[in-house]
Amino acid sequence: MRALVTGGAGFIGRWVVKELLTGGHEVTVLDNLSAGRRENLAQFLESAGFNGLVEGDIRERELLARAFPGQNVCYHLAASINVQNSIDDPGETFDNDVAGTFNVLEECRKNNTRMIFVSTCMVYERARPDGGIDEQHPVRPTSPYAAAKLAGEALTLSYHHAYRLPAVVLRPFNTYGPYQRTGGEGGVVAVFTDRNLKGEKLTVYGDGTQTRDFLYAEDCARFIVAAGSRYGLSGEIVNAGSGRDITINELTCLICPEKERIIHVPHIHPRSEIEKLVCDWRKAERLLGWKPLVSLEDGLTRTRNWMEMGVTGR
Ligand code: UDP
Questions:
Q1: Minimal CA–CA distance to 255: which of 308, 210, 190?
Q2: Which in 22, 125, 187, 224 has the greatest CB count within 10 A?
Q3: Distance separating alpha carbons of residues 206 and 203, to the nearest angstrom
Q4: Residue 91 lies in a domain
């Protein structure tokens, strides 16, 4: 396959690029480097299948028009991904995640490029006490970010229905691992691991009883690439997660054994918080033969080891 990965210099994107190159595919990355980093791609520069980085924005339609011809599949990961940023500035999230996705879809339609839209578990209503969230579970956009992703999903599915464009929607649960950012756009595992290594305090928002289902980056990338490699999936929505949720309090204790460095602070966006997220990934197993392979404990160790390498002068 010839694949275009939007957001390919970002955290999940670079793992997707790695998985594609390992599978012998050709890869072009399109990224505006707002959250992504050129260094995330450094190890691929010599790879035979790597066709380079196009530095640019999914809001620039002329740039997209030049990047798409000849691409068989587009893995669309470029997005504003931070819940709080979307509350502070919903316009930017809308421009990137809705208008940007529309621009990508238009190029897919013109070039007959398969669309793999990487959405998020944040679109879902909280899990019920007795089971995981499958793809039939109700959605509930509690933030402009979730709403923008739902809009992007709807646009993607409309291109499948209206134009028969091969298009799939993926909803990975909270993904973590090496290369995730430790600042604003990073996830809680990266933020807390970094703070722990620096001897700083870990701030839990609210009472910390909210739960998340953490998916290791390489498991996530295998899932995304598999979805773009199969035919007959068009029009489907597919989840991926570990199938196990953990409270943020428990996660914090796993990352930092020193209780005095864990503090609770008022939640920054209590109205947008989802109290319980746990994935039912059986559809991914059925359609893709996918299953998660890396346990949370193993993934946390890998993440910590990678960050420690950085702390000592990466
Ligand atoms: N969280 C926290 N402290 C932090 C960052 C995050 O307690 O410094 C919590 C956050 O409130 C949420 C969970 O950790 O319940 C996951 O947050 P993240 O930003 O990683 O992803 P989200 O699921 O909110 O998109």
A1: 190
A2: 224
A3: 9
A4: yes
Check pocket membership of 205 for ligand 1, CB cut-off 6 A: yes
- pTM of the predicted protein model: 0.97
Sign (positive or negative) of CA dihedral 6, 11, 14, 16: negative
Q: How far apart are CA 288 and CA 228, in angstroms?
A: 10
The parent domain of residue 99 ranges over 2-176+216-241+280-292
Over 60: is that where the pLDDT of 311 sits?
no
Element holding 167 (H helix, E strand): strand 167-172
Question: Hey, whose CA ends up nearest to atom 23 of ligand 1?
Answer: 174
Please write the tens of the pLDDT for every residue from 167-215: 999 999 999 999 999 987 799 999 999 999 999 999 999 999 999 999 9
> Would you say residue 61 lies in a domain?
yes
* Residue 165 near ligand 1, beta carbon < 6 Å: no
Instruction: Look up residue 310 and give its amino acid.
Output: G
How far away, in angstroms, is 192 Cα from ligand 1 center?
10
How does 287-302 read in b/e, with b if 16+ C-beta sit within 10 Å? bbebebebebeebbeb
The Å distance, Cα 15 to ligand 1 centre, comes to 22
